[in-house]
Structure to design on (543 residues):
């Protein structure tokens, strides 16, 4: 019996090496097929610590809460180092969802908030959580779909386009996750009465990236923020179809947190950052900022070309 | 701690009042996994029996291959199925991506090696006299296979239950090729992940608890069967 068992293992042994070799071949050939994701170098490392290394005790720290999509756009990596140099301060960026970012402000955990949720921002001010609100910039949503445009929505207004997609029964993928983009979609449906029920209205319940992939695979229409669309444009076949109107504007506001009751708040520096965001030079930088060769944000306080020249 | 307890209380309330979203996801999880496991059993049980009895040179290699298949990460199977069903993939024209059929296919691939390996193990462990007796009584190929399955029924049932519990709890395939579409491919696993992502802790926990209950019931069945095996 013992002898028999040893013999079996001896037979099994030579099998192991070919299996390892086979697997390595399979794995390497699969890996060779995929390309690394297109990530702009340095964005990740710059996001929160642009000033590591030259910390001195005199430098003040400002805590800025922003939405994740704002951080991911890379705009702050372009703007904040300028402010940090001017004010000899360090800005710690805390990225969270819109609701969480505002909550961080009302609980006094951050000094200043940059978000894009106008109604919630007004509520924040009305509740006395903020001492100042400024329009900084806006970007846009896009209704994208297959380039063949089977529902024929090109150049229609957003409401007309949605209505046409529903009437023709084409696939439309909704985020369905109560995110800012989903809220905007519901708002557009409400503006045209109410959302008609049709079979090909699909709710992914997932983030913008996975939802864009899903719509691309299904050749469906969807509402997306321009930033995510531009970042993924090379990987998908969907194109922006619908005319830009105010309905698709996504305004960003900066809110200086009320220091009353929160002794840790650095209001003076927060005011200075708010001033910085709306200063002509910064507004010009916002207008010049590009993602994938396209402008992403439009300054809230556009300025003449002469002024841009002066500020340079 | 309050956060966790309040979430738990809300979750229990949602389960008790049989929230329609939970019911729909639970039902979908169960039927998708059942279909996948049934298909893999139909093909996997005969193959497992044959591998358990056959004697040919490459047998240890094939057995090892299926055993390795039991370790497949579900995200790996998910991405392979995505590639196959994607619009530009080989089966793209069938338009199956983001349908329950795609999830069933992926879970079939997950369950198949489990059923083959565990059945093979159970049949190989049978007393050789079972086969000899069947031979001498003049049983044909299918009758012999039936004899093996019935003699190794504990092991075979274990195989099916293990495969089911793995399918019903997996997330990778269901999310990648199912897409978590409401009313179509949203299962307990994808709904749990989604609600957590939305910050809806109680809803997510409710989905997770129902999933846990299903898995525990299956595990309890496995436990009972294993005990019978030992006695």
């Amino acid at each position: 019996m013992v002898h028999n068992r040893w013999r079996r293992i001896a037979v099994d042994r030579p099998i192991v090496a070919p299996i390892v070799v086979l697997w390595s071949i399979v794995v390497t050939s699969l890996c060779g097929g995929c390309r690394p994701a297109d990530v702009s170098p340095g964005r990740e490392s710059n996001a929160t610590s642009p000033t590591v290394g030259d910390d001195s005790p005199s430098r003040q720290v400002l805590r800025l809460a922003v939405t994740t999509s704002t951080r991911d756009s890379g705009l702050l990596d372009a703007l904040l180092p300028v402010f940090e140099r001017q004010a000899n301060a360090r800005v710690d960026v805390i990225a969270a969802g819109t609701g969480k970012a505002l909550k961080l402000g009302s609980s006094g955990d951050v000094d200043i908030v940059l978000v894009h949720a106008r109604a919630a921002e007004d509520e924040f001010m009305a509740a006395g959580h903020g001492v100042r609100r400024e329009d900084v910039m806006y970007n846009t949503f896009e209704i994208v779909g297959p380039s063949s445009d089977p529902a024929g929505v090109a150049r229609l207004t957003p409401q007309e386009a949605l209505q046409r997609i529903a009437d023709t029964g084409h696939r439309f993928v909704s985020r369905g996750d109560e995110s800012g983009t989903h809220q905007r979609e519901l708002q557009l449906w409400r503006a045209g009465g109410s959302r008609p029920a049709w079979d090909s209205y699909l709710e992914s319940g997932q983030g913008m990236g996975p939802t864009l992939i899903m719509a691309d695979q299904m050749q469906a229409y969807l509402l997306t923020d321009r930033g995510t669309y531009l970042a993924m444009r090379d990987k998908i076949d969907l194109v922006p179809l619908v005319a830009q109107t105010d309905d698709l504007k996504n305004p960003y506001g900066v809110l200086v947190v009320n220091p009353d009751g929160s002794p840790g708040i650095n209001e003076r520096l927060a005011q200075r950052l708010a001033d910085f965001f709306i200063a002509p030079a910064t507004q010009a930088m916002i207008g010049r900022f590009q993602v994938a060769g396209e402008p992403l944000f439009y300054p809230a306080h556009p300025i003449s070309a002469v002024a841009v020249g002066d500020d340079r | 701690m309050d956060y966790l307890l309040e979430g738990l209380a809300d979750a229990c309330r949602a389960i008790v009042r049989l929230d329609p979203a939970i019911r729909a996801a639970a039902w979908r999880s169960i039927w998708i996994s059942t279909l996948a496991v049934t298909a893999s059993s139909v093909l996997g049980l005969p193959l497992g029996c044959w591998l358990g009895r056959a004697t040919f040179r490459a047998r240890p290699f094939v057995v090892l291959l299926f055993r390795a298949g039991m370790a497949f990460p579900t995200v790996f199977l998910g991405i392979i199925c995505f590639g196959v069903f994607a619009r530009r993939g080989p089966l793209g024209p069938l338009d199956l991506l983001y349908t329950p059929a795609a999830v069933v296919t992926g879970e079939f691939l997950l369950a198949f090696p489990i059923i083959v390996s565990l059945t093979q193990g159970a049949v190989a462990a049978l007393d050789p006299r079972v086969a000899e007796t069947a031979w001498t009584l003049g049983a044909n190929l299918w009758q012999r296979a039936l004899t093996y399955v019935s003699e190794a029924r504990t092991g075979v049932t274990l195989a099916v239950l293990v495969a089911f519990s793995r399918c019903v709890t997996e997330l990778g395939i269901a999310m990648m090729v199912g897409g978590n579409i409401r009313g179509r491919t949203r299962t307990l696993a994808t709904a749990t992940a989604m609600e957590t992502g939305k910050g809806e802790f109680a809803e997510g926990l409710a989905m997770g608890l129902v999933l846990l209950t299903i898995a525990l019931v299956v595990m309890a069945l496995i436990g009972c069967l294993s005990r019978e095996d030992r006695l």
User: Anything to note?
Assistant: Chain A has 13 helices and twelve strands. Chain A touches chain B at residues 11-12, 15, 18-19, 23, 97, 99-100, 176-178, 202-207, 210, 214, 216-219 (CB under 8 Å). Chain A has two domains: 44-51+58-139+250-311, 141-248.
